[in-house]
Amino acid sequence: MYRIRLFAIRHSRAFEWIYQRVEQVMVALDPVFGKIGYDRIERPVAFTERCIKTVLFDCKMCGQCVLSSTGMSCPMNCPKQLRNGPCGGVRPGGYCEVKPEMKCVWALAWDGASRMKNGAQIETVLPPVERNLEGSSSWLRVSREKAARLREAKEKGRAAVAEAFADARAKEPASAPLAEEPARACGGNK
Ligand code: SF4
After folding, report:
1. Residue 46 CA, ligand 1 centroid: distance in Å
2. Which has fewest Cβ within 10 Å: 9, 14, 116, 179?
3. pLDDT tens-digit readout, 51-68
4. Together in a domain, 169 and 92
5. 86: cis peptide before it, omega within 30°?
């Protein structure tokens, strides 16, 4: 497992790309997940996520995955479970002060991040772990939140267009009807 973890960090750029694709697919599946019910799919998705990420990253299923901000090095493998690092105790050669046989998780994180396209994210200070999310699926939560944000942005965009039509109708009554007007602008169904 440790070797595979080091492999993932060495190939962090490729894993970053794969993660982005997985997220796109999960976000696209949001309407399907919504119909089935997020609560119903939580267990099978969390199980799949655990199986894949345990092998690749020694994942501990903290429920708030930050791999894309930590060079694909899981911070939960740090014996101090630091969410930002490294601490001041890194040994010569980049080894952990608590487990001298293991490379410092955070030294590896900075190394992995340096290869990633969005590696600068590692400079953002991460909040402490919320223990109540332990065991839950990060994939599902993140994609669900992203899908909700996209829906909200789309809705705002529609509202802005509707408002623009109302403005145009008030200011320039002759020009507004030339374009197709959204239903909501003239009080129709949303
Ligand atoms: S940050 Fe959390 S979810 Fe991500 S690999 Fe580590 S333990 Fe697993």
Report:
1. 12
2. 179
3. 999 999 999 999 999 999
4. no
5. yes
